[in-house]
Amino acid sequence: MRYMLSSVLAATPFFTRFAACDRYASNQSPKIVDAPQVAINFPDVKGIRLLSPAFVDPSSIPATFANGTSGPTPQDVLVQYLKHLSRSNRYFTYHESEALQSEEARSIPYVTLSNGKRGQRLRIWIQGGMHGDEPAGDQAVLALLGKFAADDRWAAKVLEKVELLLLPRYNSDGVEYFQRALASSYDGNRDHAILVREQTRKLKRLQSSFDPHIFVDQHEYTGVGAVASKYIRAQDILVSANKNQNIHKDIRSLNQDFVEEIFSAIGEKGLRYAPYFTTSVSGNAITINEADASPAANHKNAGLGQTVTFLTETRGIRLSDQHFQRRVAAALIASTAIIDIAVNDFDNVYKTIEGSRKAFIDSRDDIVVLDEQQTTSKSITFINATSGALSNVSVTSKNSDPPSILITRARPRAYVFSRAWADVAERLRILGVKVDVLQQDYVGTVEALTIASAELENTKFEGITATTVTTTATARNVTVPNGGFWVDTKQKNAAFAFVLLEPEHYTSQVHYNTIPVEKGDEYPIFRVV
Ligand SMILES: [Zn+2]
């Protein structure tokens, strides 16, 4: 499902409208060929071995990869490769189960890596294939597994400090149809706060139980079209840290330090990089939209477990097999750099994350209910579409470095609400939040929020017409019968409760209408302050 203005649709020529509409298992974006003067900017990366199926055994690549109608590695080839590596390597454990399948019951295999010894470890989760038409993402995770299998000295050193869960293909249905979305045509990377799709819930439960210190999601971006009719996007890879203000400041700072070091590693190989951005154009003026803090996307959501998170995006959508070696190399250099930083700076990284988690649990600081991006000026490197030359272009940047804070609120001691909202409790639990069941009636004073205004958006996003509210707070006595829910905020994953339960937030239950409210209503989740 896509974001669409009905008024735009009405004015759009038929062929464009057709291309923008969902059709079951048929949502491919056609291949676009880079002009020779553009393509020359993307030679193979020297001095790197890519030990993944497409490079180890090119005969496994179907002919459809070259015409842009499939990726290079069919599901059965991926499964056989993972099983082969796991059989022959003492550190690898292969996981595949009926409990973790796609919407159409394809397997979603993953591999855990551990040396089995006791001791402090950083847990790192790395995934690819969230979007089914971004093949360098899952290929890079396979190449990372190949590197672990082939380089025993490096693997042994890493696994003294780290445990990993590597999940190469999040969206096995999307890869099968070579489309971005899940089989249901729902964008799986917009589902991590509302948790509509069962596949999202399964994967989120696994993420919550693994509880990573570091989370990496490897994607590709669309860089083929000319921006402002004359510039082609030049970056081999975009990397962003988490910007959510409800993540402890030391974790956010560590996250950004990692990004700077990743950029160094990428630059040393002669590759071009930048923070993640999309572009929009008005007249000739280019605006770049950088990473925001919305926890609807998996990598941003994962940070709310007080976790260092990364989005990596190689230039790849609609390129089919063009520059594939360079794309996979760029993503592998980034994931390898993240692991190497975690290992080489282990004491600092471990202490910072664990210390910040403890500080977050005990914090009485205000929570951030709503923020928005700030606007600054920047210079970004593009490729001149006509000459092929690299050039620096002045742009307007919307970014969260830092965001503007719009609403803060005292951190409640707890949230309390009726068992009528068992579905809300279930969402919180999937996100790893401990939700207690009241063993006796709760009788006490709470902060109750009354809806001062409620506005329905005039567009749908992923099937939902969102509601934006303002509220006023009053103290009142309330009785919530036993069997109701109590969410203590003195816990590591409390930030998930903040973004789901504070009604003004842009991933709240009110935003998504899972708790429907109108002006004048009392919001039924109470704050115990
Ligand atoms: Zn993607």
UniProtKB/TrEMBL annotation:
Source organism of this protein record: Karstenula rhodostoma CBS 690.94
Domain of life: Eukaryota
The keyword Protease belongs to this UniProt entry's keyword annotation: yes
Active-site residues, Swiss-Prot/TrEMBL: 313
InterPro entries, per the entry: Peptidase_M14
Domain Peptidase M14: 71-342
Keywords: Glycoprotein, Hydrolase, Protease, Secreted, Signal, Virulence
Function: Extracellular metalloprotease that contributes to pathogenicity.
Cellular localization per UniProt: Secreted
Cellular component aspect of the GO annotation: extracellular region
Cofactor names: Zn(2+)
Family matches, as PANTHER family: INACTIVE METALLOCARBOXYPEPTIDASE ECM14 (PTHR11705:SF83), PROTEASE FAMILY M14 CARBOXYPEPTIDASE A,B (PTHR11705)
Gene Ontology MF, one: metallocarboxypeptidase activity
Protein family membership: Belongs to the peptidase M14 family.
GO BP, one annotated term: proteolysis
Protein name, entry field: Carboxypeptidase M14B
